[in-house]
Design goal:
This protein has 87 residues and is mainly α. Helix content is 71%, strand content 0%. It is globular and about 30 Å long. The protein starts with a helix and ends with a helix. The mean pLDDT is 78.
Length: 87
């Protein structure tokens, strides 16, 4: 996980997330996680809990829609994190 993503999280949320926390969460993510809407929603909620930043259902819907329409490579977790930070 690049320091840019972690710094972006800190700047947007005021919360610090360690690379170990992200790596632990990411280790359970597979390409199917991003392509399965229920699993993607669960991942978003896990990231929200890890960052201690609540995410509304409408924001979750926007993120899911953005991920599905982006055609991003589900193997690239960093791209997903950057996409989520834009929301």
């Amino acid at each position: 996980m690049s320091k840019d993503v972690l710094n972006s999280i800190k700047n947007k949320t005021g919360k610090t997330i360690s690379p170990n926390q992200v790596n632990k969460l990411a280790s359970g993510v597979s390409p199917s996680t991003v392509s399965n809407e229920a699993q993607l929603r669960q991942l978003i909620k896990q990231v929200s809990a890890m960052a201690k930043v609540p995410v509304s259902e409408s924001t979750i819907n926007e993120i899911v829609k953005a991920v599905k329409s982006s055609g991003m490579n589900p193997n690239n977790m960093e791209t997903l994190m950057k996409m989520m930070m834009k929301k």
